[in-house]
Amino acid sequence: MTKSFFVAAALAMTTLTPVATIAAPSAYAMEAGALPSGDFVRKQKRLKGAYTVEQRGDQTVIVFSEDFRAARGPDLKVFLSPKTIADVDGNTAVDGSVLLGELSSTKGAQEYILPAGVILSDFNSVLVHCEAYSVLWGGSDL
Question: Running DSSP on this structure, what letter comes out for residue 14?
């Protein structure tokens, strides 16, 4: 009887299917494989166009569209902010934010690579901001 029990238990274990698998963490936690994208909204200065997020190997890249346009200004930078675009202004744009780099151009396609260790899902918006004068051009929710 004991031998039969162990044989039955062994057979049952070989036919079980796992209910969950553990995957290695990635730079961005994706739900159903969808990466964020959106349209820029103006806050204090002219800003239009769209962005998409792309995963390229182990790098997460924010890509501004070809139709991206921003008013010219000094010290324009791109940030990831923990605040939504509705909740951020020129005075709070850098609070808890991560600098992705200086705005490459006020028009056209451009890319910004997330620094190593930065997890996109920890942030709620991408911003274009004049850091020197605390003027928020605008941005988009992620």
Answer: H
